[in-house]
Each structure stands twice: as structure tokens, then as C-alpha cells.
Here is the input.
Amino acid sequence: MRKPPLDPDVADAAPTDQILTVYDEQHLVTYMRLLQAEREGADWMEVARIVLRIDPEREPEGARSAYQSHLARAKWVTEQGRLLRDTGSK
Here is the structure.
């Protein structure tokens, strides 16, 4: 896996595939930032604005939907997708 970009553009919704996707690999930093913000109790609107770069005041439904889908995917990737595990080990 290549080093993921620090601030990639985000789609309206994160993938829902039951396998890891190229999008997941490209958005690993985004996912980690979302999970950290949730652990810290950050307001979703602030997170959408800063992490996803979507203005929740201009696009309230789109921002909320993107935030929720990317946060859910971040949890899936770390809990089920095993993207963070060392794929080189047996």
C-alpha cells in the first residue's frame, strides 16, 4: 500500500463494499481524523467542515450524510476491514 494522501477529496458517501477499496486506502488519514474527533467529542459540523471540507451551513444534509457514512466506514475499516493490520505478516 502506498502512503495515503493527507487531505484527499471526499465523495458524497464512503464505500459500503465488504472489501477494502482503493478509496479506503486513499482516505486512511481522513478515517483516522474522524475517529479521533469522535473520541474527543468534537461537534460533527466542525468535523465536516475541517476534515471533510464540506460546509454544513451551506449543505446541511450533504455534510451530515457524508460525515455519517465516512465515520461508519472508518469504524468498519478499523474493526472489520483490518486495513491497519500489517498485511506482510502471516
User: Anything to note?
Assistant: The chain is about 55% helix and 0% strand. The radius of gyration is 13 Å. Confidence is low (pLDDT under 50) at residues 86-90. The helical segments are 22-26, 28-39, 44-52, 60-81.
